[in-house]
Amino acid sequence: MSDDAPELLAIADELYALPQEEFTPSRDAKAKELKADKALSTAVKKLKRPSVAAWVVNLFVRREPDQVEQVIAVGVALREAQEGMDAAELRALTKQRRQLTSAVTQQARGLAKDEGVKVTPAVADQVEATLTAALLDPECARAVRSGLLTAALSSTGLDSVDVAAAVAVPEALGFAASPTTGGPSGPPELHVVPDDGTERKREEAETALAAAQGTVGEAEATLAEATKAVEDLQARSLQLQSEIDELRRRLTELESSAEETDEELEEAEESQGEARSAHAAALKTRDAAQKAAEKLG
């Protein structure tokens, strides 16, 4: 961590708590204010404006820090609970996870709406993907907790995520955003919902299996074929879900790149306008000098 890192984190903490439209002018003003410290001023100027989805998640983290910690804790519990589960139980667990992230995403959308920001379905999907990533991946949880996201996250819980690229500065990982006040959002109580019938169903299945030992070979062959079909379809389902997650991650990256390009284009157009004005002034000066030279000649 550099000597300026603590001060840079404090400045970033303030900037990323602002409404999104105020970020760029406030960042640039802060960089000018710090021009005496060239290194820190340059670092502030390089801070990226958050995407809409990242801004919504940052807002939620700052307004509802206790609930964010609950979500992360639920993620830990779910990861521990899934060990040793069979396919049916894993599907039930995945459904619970999606219900949880969907509910929290709706709450985050409500907070954004209170701030005058309309969250489109596409942005809501990115918000939910980011919260899901925090559930599935401890490193993503650290990035979300910082409140300094610049881009949405996506994770399957199996792949490695470059979280450093999605936060304002690498030092953000391990940093906790400063809470801010806002209207009451009435968060629901979050908890892992146990499948109370799992043990009973398992015992019934074992009893049925014991009773089925006396069945004929033809029934055993039918069962084997059905089991293979289920396993093949489960493998295909997991493969398709992995491909879907990868496509969503790529879409998130492209949308983030598009937003950054639009911002850079805006800045480039401003520079182009200034260059044109300077060019016109230079031409005018040259023409005047040429006329003066001709008169003397």
What are the salient characteristics of this protein?
70% helix; mainly alpha; 297 residues; 10 helices
Brief write-up:
It contains 10 helices and no strands. The chain has helices spanning 5-15, 20-33, 38-45, 52-63, 65-81, 87-114, 121-136, 138-146, 198-211, 217-296.
Name the overall outline.
elongated
Regions with pLDDT < 50 over 5+ consecutive residues? Answer: 183-206
Q: What share of residues is helical? A: over 70%
Distance between the termini: 66 Å
Could you give the order of the helices and strands? Answer: HHHHHHHHHH
Number of strands: 0
Number of helices: 10
Q: How would you sum up the major sheet?
A: none
**Number of structurally distinct domains:** 2
Query: What percent strand?
Result: under 5%
Radius of gyration: 28 Å
In terms of structural class, how would the helical and strand content be classed? mainly alpha
Give the overall average pLDDT: 82
Give the helix/strand layout.
Layout: H1 5-15, H2 20-33, H3 38-45, H4 52-63, H5 65-81, H6 87-114, H7 121-136, H8 138-146, H9 198-211, H10 217-296
Describe the structure.
With 297 residues, the protein is an all-alpha fold. It contains ten helices and no strands. It has two domains: 181 residues, no CATH class; 89 residues. The chain is elongated and about 120 Å long.
